[in-house]
Specification:
The protein is of the alpha+beta class and about 425 residues long. Helix content is about 35%, strand content about 20%. The chain is built from 14 helices and 16 strands. Strands 1-5-6-11-10-9-7-8 form an 8-stranded mixed beta sheet, sandwiched between helices. It has a 5-stranded mixed beta sheet with strand order 13-12-14-15-16, sandwiched between helices. Strand 3 and strand 4 form a beta hairpin. Helix 1 packs antiparallel against helix 5 and helix 5 packs parallel to helix 9. The radius of gyration is 28 Å and the shape is elongated. The protein starts with 15 loop residues before the first helix and ends in a 5-residue tail after the last helix. The site of adenosine monophosphate has 19 residues, from strand 6, strand 10, strand 11 and helix 11.
Length: about 425
Amino acid sequence: MASKFQAPRGTFDVLPEAARARARLERAAAEIFARAGYETIATPAFEDTALFERGVGQSTDIVRKEMFTFEDKGGRSLTLRPEGTASICRAYLEHGMHKLAQPVKLSYLGPFFRHERPQAGRYRQFHQLGAECIGSDSPLADAEVIMLLSDLLSELGVPGVELRLGSLGSLEARRAYLEDLKAHLHAHEGELSKDVRERIDINPLRAFDADDEGTQGVMASAPTIVERLEGEDAEHFQEVRSLLDAAGISYAVDSTLVRGLDYYTRTIFSFVCDQLGAQSEVGGGGRYDGLIEQLGGAPTPAVGFAAGIERILLALDEAVPAAGRDAFLAVADPGQRRRAMALVVELRHAGISAEVDLAERSLKGQLKHADRIGARQVLILEADGSAQLRDMETGEQRTADTGKLLEEMTGGEP
Ligand code: AMP
């Protein structure tokens, strides 16, 4: 019976079949994070709106158009988190994490919310996993977070992945560059799309992302920051590249790479997957040396990434089969149901995945059900207290020693 309710636009249900592939991804990520010493952090699903306005940037699409903002009963403006980094920096400051050994290495996973036009790979509630390395300006930290995401994508077997790498320079270099970029855009205003033209002074970098021909033509001759990096910025970028080279991670330097958040400085990167069509980025990130100061803390360099769980799953497009059960407990006589219930709990405590009939079926119905749920063996409790053990793969059945059921069902290794 179809319900008149449906999941809200841009959201989706994760049904058990899809949940298995998701769980495999989450386990792989948790292991990679743990092995590299990135401890888990969880922050609230909503924050003060001002945190994102200030942290993500007033000129970004996220803040201008995509936030789910609401007022609580006390009149405070709150926003469902559109991304994770601003919240984690807020938590770093709120809990005085600068007193911990630096850099502080954190990982997270959870739902995020953006009011975007839904399409394949783009949702209004989606999930990201990510890592942040806070408190080091060394290129080693940049290389480490890039390697973490690279490792995850290759361990999962995401096909057709390419890493694009760029640098935005330090905040000062970026500022000087942006003036030149704005001048270039103003000189060609007539050829730009309306959207880009309106944002020349607030977010000129986004022009690199435009998909209209006019703007693309203008951008082909625009100055890029990568070609003008100098001094410590150039050295930093070169060192990140050398570290990736030494680790055997291939990448393409992309001088037109930009990201949708304002806070990036120096290294930026993006992993794209050629199987994904329009929404091809599976994950990306970069350095955000100015963000913590922007949020009221002391200058604190940091770098991190976020990856889209749905995008990775779309790229993998794989069905993970159900695990099946080790055992199903059937009763030949209803008088055995209590015993079956007690026994199934004992089996579970011994680490065996076991189920019992919860629908009061006939023995035939129970065996059919055991087959449907993929039980490997069925223990049939007879009315006289004896038990039969049936191997569902071979169909073989024998009398079980009820004094040693655990051993019987684990092949002698309880
Ligand atoms: P961002 O926080 O914008 O840097 O995005 C990081 C990653 O999150 C992207 O590479 C995508 O994989 C994923 N992502 C961002 N926005 C969405 C969305 N609306 N729906 C699904 N995935 C998204």
